[in-house]
Amino acid sequence: MKILTHVTENVFELRKIDRVIGFYLYDKSNECIARIDAVLVDSQTYHSYYMVINLGGFLQVRGKAVVLPVEVCEVMDLGKVKTEWRKESLLGAPVPTDVMSMTTLEEELIRDYYALPLARSDRSKNQEK
Questions:
Q1: Residue 37 phi, psi (nearest 5)
Q2: Distance between CA 1 and CA 29 in Å, rounded?
Q3: Model's pTM, two decimal places?
Q4: Residue 94 pairs with which residues in a beta bridge?
Q5: CA angle, 82 as apex, 13 and 65 as ends, to 5°?
Q6: Tell me: the pLDDT tens digits for 72-112?
Q7: Topology at the third CATH level for domain 4-113
Q8: Tens-place pLDDT, residues 120-129
């Protein structure tokens, strides 16, 4: 699998559909789950494969960093991304030891949890930057 790069700002290299850092993630009941802190992208094409959110934090304490495949999310409008997953289910998702350098095994565990094929697919080959 290709190496992923951790991106924390909506940089120009990202396609418009992948510029979701700072957006809020909502569940199917339209309840806010978390803010999207970063995306994990292909290091050469900057196509996004995962969103990184933080669950369960309070004040200055960081919560659980959850890596969410883009296939289970849909960008609704400016500032809003929607998923069919509930916050409680996301809390049970496997997490990488280090989000900045996720191993192949950790990625396979995450993809398996969301019932996705183990190989990454380009979710929008026909969409432009």
A1: -90, -30
A2: 34
A3: 0.86
A4: none
A5: 70
A6: 999 988 789 999 999 889 989 999 999 888 898 999 999 99
A7: Photosynthetic Reaction Center; Chain H, domain 2 (3.90.50)
A8: 765 444 444 4
